[in-house]
């Protein structure tokens, strides 16, 4: 079942968030080494129905039900059990992660707090920018804006990403000055009250890292996240000032995305190293914002992670967690089944092509032998 596509090194060039980006038991615990490689197994050996998974892969390859998918990787009990590439994609291709990047940025915040570089999630955002003069639209609401409000998409600013000319589009056209652009935004409501999807506040976190550590998100991640995980190939979009696009600018291989998912599945531990604090993982996976519509399955938002409903066929009722990005990018963590699932795609927005949640609940989770 496992397939490794032909070798080759490619970067997917797309219009990314307004700028042209290249873009338990039996568990195997990875060791901290750049030479570490995935242990490989079969679905059946790890308690998955290989026939059902083959049906899913065949449907993807046919291209009708699940069009424009590029990669499907499944890890169970720490072992790579499915690795399939589609539509000309290759195993070593760096694939845009879009807003999956936000979950990596969340990890950096947890690391910075543990290292004492950030004081905590209640720290005021403006305290990170003592040297910035002339911030527009100042009021008590802006003064009260906290780091946690950025992590939970409840900044209270007018920043949004809806339609042509949105603040997000405007900022992504700027070659520099992303931090000041965001800090100047008018306030519409009290921070911490209303959920509005807001990449700008996450991008600002990179400047906050720079002001406290001397490193933008990409450089901080290189030292404290990517190096421990042995992630060597990556691309992270930056502006002319070197400000990392921390809300959507990262590109990785599917295998390396799976490493990040496994890190979170293992409560932030990689081999003998606690890369991300365990309590940060718990807080990131806690439903800080309940987004479920009345009568619909549970759904919410943590610290830059989406909280999906448990598997209705499961026994524990444990939530499923997802880093999710535009065009169909997913890192899905399923603690109940000790699984990580990676999906990369290039779905057309608004077309209904992104059926990853259907693929997850109806095709992949049903393959778990109970």
Shape: globular
Tally the beta strands: 15
What helical percentage do the residues reach?
25-40%
Instruction: Please count the helical segments.
Output: 11
Reported by name, the CATH topology of the largest domain is: Beta-lactamase
Identify the CATH class of the largest domain.
Answer: Alpha Beta
The assigned structural class equals alpha+beta
Q: In whole angstroms, how far apart are the ends?
A: 21 Å
Return the average pLDDT rounded to an integer.
Answer: 91
Order of helices and strands: EEHEEEHHHHHHHEEHEEHEEEEEEH
Q: Which runs of at least 5 residues are low in confidence (pLDDT < 50)?
A: 2-29
Q: Quickly count the domains.
A: 2
Please list the strands of the largest sheet in the order they lie side by side: 4-3-15-14-13-12-11-10
Spatial extent as radius of gyration: 20 Å
Per CATH, the architecture of the largest domain is 3-Layer(aba) Sandwich
Structure notes:
With 370 residues, the protein is α+β, with helices and mostly antiparallel strands. The chain has two domains: 14-97 and 250-367, Beta-lactamase (3-Layer(aba) Sandwich); 103-213, no CATH class. Helix content is 28%, strand content 16%. It has eleven helices and 15 strands. An eight-stranded antiparallel beta sheet has the order 4-3-15-14-13-12-11-10, with helices on both faces. A hairpin with a 4-residue loop joins strand 11 and strand 12. Helix 2 packs across helix 8. The longest helix is centred in the middle third of the chain and has 15 residues, at 199-213. It is globular, with a radius of gyration of 20 Å. The two termini are 21 Å apart.
